UniProtKB/TrEMBL annotation:
Keywords: ATP-binding, Nucleotide-binding
SMART domains: AAA
Region ranges (Disordered): 1-35
Example of a GO MF term: ATP hydrolysis activity
PANTHER family: MAGNESIUM-CHELATASE SUBUNIT CHLD (PTHR42759:SF1), MOXR FAMILY PROTEIN (PTHR42759)
Protein's recorded name: Methanol dehydrogenase regulatory protein
Coiled coil: none
Compositional bias annotation for Basic and acidic residues: 1-10
Keyword Cytoplasm: no
Entry annotated with the keyword Secreted: no
Gene3D superfamilies xref list: Magnesium chelatase subunit I, C-Terminal domain, P-loop containing nucleotide triphosphate hydrolases
Organism the protein comes from: gut metagenome
Record domain AAA+ ATPase: where: 77-218
Matches recorded under InterPro entries: AAA+_ATPase, ATPase_AAA-3, CbbQ/NirQ/NorQ/GpvN, ChlI/MoxR_AAA_lid, P-loop_NTPase
């Protein structure tokens, strides 16, 4: 394929506040990935599995289609998810439902202010019969782990999750215990309650692949919720949900991501978006290279969920806010101006030219 370079320069559109830098240019690069005659993925089986997952979720959960897509994207990408929302919007229900649909080991831990690291990871217990110490595993030893109200535990307990979230292992008394694959941590938190809660460390937030904010249902969705509860027959209980995927099937679906096509211009587009978080006057702490890798993985997984074996600029633009906004720390001036991390990320994304 012949190389084409478009050197058109466009003037950026300034925005008010701290986000008024010039618009960046991604430039055109040779589309090396899209070679003619390259074998394409057959996504028939993949589409069937994802369709069944969404159908099962819809029997229990009303609405929240975007949230469901994001959670499935994160699980397919092999990352951890932080779900934030006010009480009663089905955060825990969604996490339990997704875990139920995957026929894998599941555990749940309720974070509380008095929770200790050993309560999460496990501890060595002396065995009187053998005269040796035996390791009693904590709730993190599962394929899908639900951490409910994660912001209720103190900093030392939060720090206990650092190693297992990033390296998929736990080190106790000089012994390293590896986690089985797949391994995904689904955490929930309440953004409005202040009593008995602790702010998550930036190092831990950076280990979450995505942060999803669950809002209130629409009027029509809330009416449907009431109708389901009024007619018990139309409301399927979580215990009756039949698993759709096995562990081996989920791991097999993840192998599809290795064959998803990503053009070099899109890699540059992702890098420019992340770079913007580091040079913006509204941001005190920008996104790390881990965020760039996360954006790539999430974009590939989202493209597969849309039935494509290639990533488009729209995929990157759609996923970037959920991958980046929880990793940013805004300046005091930006917060006083009324900016939020999500609003800042969306404006920074708009400043980078979309590749053609």
């Amino acid at each position: 394929m012949e190389e084409e370079k478009d050197k058109k320069q466009t003037d950026g559109q300034p925005v008010d506040g701290y986000l008024g830098d010039e618009k960046l240019q991604t430039g055109e690069q040779p589309e090396d990935e899209f070679q003619t005659g390259e074998q394409r993925l057959n996504l028939t089986m993949f589409a069937e599995k994802i369709s069944r997952l969404k159908e099962q979720i819809a029997t229990v959960l009303v609405g929240q289609e975007q949230t469901v897509d994001l959670v499935l994207t994160a699980i397919l990408a092999g990352g951890h998810v932080l779900i934030e929302g006010v009480p009663g919007v089905a955060k825990t229900l969604l996490a339990r439902l997704v875990a139920r649909l995957v026929e894998a080991d599941f555990s749940r831990v309720q974070f509380t202010p008095d929770l200790m690291p050993s309560d999460v990871l496990g501890t060595m217990v002396f065995n009187m019969k053998t005269g040796e110490f035996d390791f009693h595993r904590g709730p993190v030893f599962a394929n899908v782990v639900l951490v409910d109200e994660i912001n209720r535990a103190p900093a030392k307990t939060q720090a206990a999750l650092f190693e297992v979230m990033e390296e998929r292992q736990v080190s106790i008394d000089g012994i390293t215990f590896r986690m089985d694959e797949p391994y995904t941590l689904l955490a929930t938190q309440n953004p409005v309650e202040q009593e008995g809660t602790y702010k998550l460390p930036e190092a831990q937030l950076d280990r979450f692949l995505m942060k999803i904010i669950m809002g209130y249902p629409t009027l029509e969705e809330e009416i449907q919720i009431l109708e389901r509860h009024h007619r018990q027959a139309a409301f399927m209980k979580l215990e009756t949900v039949i698993p759709v995927l096995t562990k081996s099937e989920l791991l097999a679906l993840r192998t599809y991501m290795d064959k998803v096509l990503v053009d070099s211009t899109l890699l540059r587009y992702m890098a420019l978006i992340v770079q913007q978080t580091r040079i913006s006057k509204a941001v005190y702490l920008g996104a790390s290279p881990r965020a760039s890798v996360a954006l790539l993985q999430v974009s590939k997984a989202y493209a597969l969920l849309q039935g494509r074996d290639f990533v488009t600029p729209e995929d990157v633009k759609e996923m970037a806010p959920f991958v980046l906004h929880h990793r940013l720390v805004l300046t005091a001036e930006a917060e006083m101006e009324g900016y939020t991390p999500l609003k800042v990320v969306r404006r920074l994304i708009d400043k980078v030219e979309v590749p053609q």
